[in-house]
């Protein structure tokens, strides 16, 4: 029997950012994943402190941005790569009223560091009313991040590529197969619905599609363009455009309506020919109040859940992984807005 401080179940942002906290603090662990394509792995990797529909920000945006940069620098020390891409978001304005609203909001204390007051005209794409740059926005190299982290975990024998079998978990002895653990953490996204210990947490699937397209006329800059969805280069003339939001569709197939929506959306501001090379989709684990769900099982006090990261999986996963670690290891209470306790009737 091998003793470990943690068993982590999952393979998305929640699992990997928590694994970083464990590595950083020299705790022993193993991570179980069967290697399926998670919502995190097909995500755009957008790092954005602004809600671009209404030009507002969100809870702890600046703290999350700062902590992400710090964390990625720490990860670079053992993977040899920094996965942060400096490619700011440019939001194309629909009309003059949006320009004026942007300028008005840019003076607000909570937005002054994010909304650039100097508008930019973008080449190649239609932007008759120019675009606004979101300062401190960027992208994560999603593919590089997951390849780099999993390579590190595999090389150091932290990664076990197999499905976690709940019935093999001995809750009395705190053992799973040949591991005896102090804590076990489930970071399963929508997969939590199959987890007998946390299946009742109020996480809802939000299906998102994106397309990879070949543009006949490439964009001249490595930026991220926002017009309905996000457009940015992946390699050579291949670009990512997405993603959609659908709370109704739950089947594991591509929705032609979502592809049509993306195709029409891109044609609205990209006036040249393009070919769709690939269509992908995933199910974001969302919560009605748009806050993560973090906490421990009411009976098994060594058992924890980290879920509900939603569309801001990178920022939420990174920032709140430390909150969870401090809760487990230092007894620091979780903020009531992210605690599982908020759903328990009192």
TrEMBL record:
SUPFAM superfamilies (UniProt xref): FAD/NAD(P)-binding domain
InterPro entries noted in UniProt: FAD-dep_OxRdtase, FAD/NAD-bd_sf
GO cellular-component term (any): cytoplasm
Organism: Chryseobacterium cheonjiense
Protein name: FAD-binding oxidoreductase
Domain (FAD dependent oxidoreductase): residue spans on this chain: 5-321
One Pfam family of this chain: DAO
Lineage: Bacteria, Pseudomonadati, Bacteroidota, Flavobacteriia, Flavobacteriales
Listed PANTHER family: SARCOSINE DEHYDROGENASE-RELATED
């Amino acid at each position: 029997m091998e003793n470990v401080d943690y068993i982590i179940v999952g393979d998305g942002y929640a699992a990997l950012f928590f694994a970083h906290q464990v590595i950083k603090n020299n705790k022993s662990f193993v991570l179980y994943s069967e290697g399926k394509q998670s919502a995190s792995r097909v995500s755009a990797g957008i790092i954005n402190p602004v809600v671009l529909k209404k030009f507002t920000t969100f809870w702890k945006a600046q703290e999350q941005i700062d902590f992400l940069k710090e964390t990625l620098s720490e990860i670079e020390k053992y993977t040899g790569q920094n996965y942060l891409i400096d490619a700011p978001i440019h939001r194309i304005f629909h009309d003059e009223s949006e320009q004026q609203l942007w300028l008005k909001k840019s003076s607000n204390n909570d937005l002054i560091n994010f909304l650039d007051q100097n508008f930019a005209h973008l080449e190649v794409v239609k932007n008759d009313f120019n675009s606004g740059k979101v300062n401190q926005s960027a992208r994560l190299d999603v593919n590089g991040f997951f390849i780099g982290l999993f390579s590190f975990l595999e090389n150091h024998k932290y990664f076990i590529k197999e499905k976690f079998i709940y019935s093999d978990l001995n809750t009395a002895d705190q053992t799973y197969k040949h591991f005896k653990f102090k804590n076990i953490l489930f970071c399963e996204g929508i997969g939590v619905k199959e987890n007998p210990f946390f299946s009742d947490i109020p996480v809802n699937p939000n299906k998102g599609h994106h397309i990879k397209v070949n543009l006949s006329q490439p964009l001249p800059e490595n930026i991220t363009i926002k017009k309905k969805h996000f457009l940015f280069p992946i390699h050579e003339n291949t670009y990512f455009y997405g993603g959609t939001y659908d709370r109704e569709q739950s089947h594991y197939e591509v929705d032609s309506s979502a592809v049509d929506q993306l195709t029409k959306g891109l044609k609205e501001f990209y006036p040249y020919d393009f070919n769709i090379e690939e269509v992908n989709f995933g199910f974001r684990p969302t919560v009605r109040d748009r806050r993560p769900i973090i906490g421990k099982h009411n009976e098994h006090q060594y058992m924890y859940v980290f879920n509900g990261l939603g569309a801001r999986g990178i920022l939420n996963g990174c920032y709140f992984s430390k909150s969870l670690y401090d809760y487990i290891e230092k007894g620091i209470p979780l903020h009531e807005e992210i605690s599982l306790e908020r759903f328990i009737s009192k």
